Amino acid sequence: MITNEQYLIQKFSEAREKMENYSSNDSGRDYWRGSMDTYHNLLSSAFPGWAEQGTTGYYVFMEQKTYEEAINIIHKSLQNA
User: Fold this and answer.
1) pLDDT tier at 23 (50, 70, 90 boundaries)?
2) Nearest to 39, CA basis, from 70, 17, 23, 22
3) pLDDT tens for residues 41-78?
4) DSSP string, 7-35
5) Which of 21, 9, 27 has its CA nearest to residue 65?
6) How far apart are CA 51 and CA 44, in angstroms?
7) pLDDT at 26
8) CB–CB of 66/55 below 8 Å?
9) Predicted TM-score of the model (pTM)
10) Cα pseudo-dihedral 68, 64, 9, 14, rounded to 10
11) 66, 17 in Cβ contact below 8 A?
């Protein structure tokens, strides 16, 4: 089940991926950068600790993984525990 926190993390990741598809002088890049900032602000204000080490948010925000990569890392760590 995806929670509101996980949904915002997923949207942050998608916005970063889309932003990276534009050149530095393209207005599309600015749009997606603004979206990333909005998702980051929502996460930071509504979900304290959303990017603590070992969480999906950590891997997406700090390690710059895609949402799917972050989920896979979490699942592998749970299987190895």
Assistant:
1) confident
2) 17
3) 999 999 999 999 999 999 999 999 999 999 999 999 99
4) HHHHHHHHHHHHHTTS-TT-HHHHHHHHH
5) 9
6) 9
7) 87
8) no
9) 0.89
10) -70
11) yes
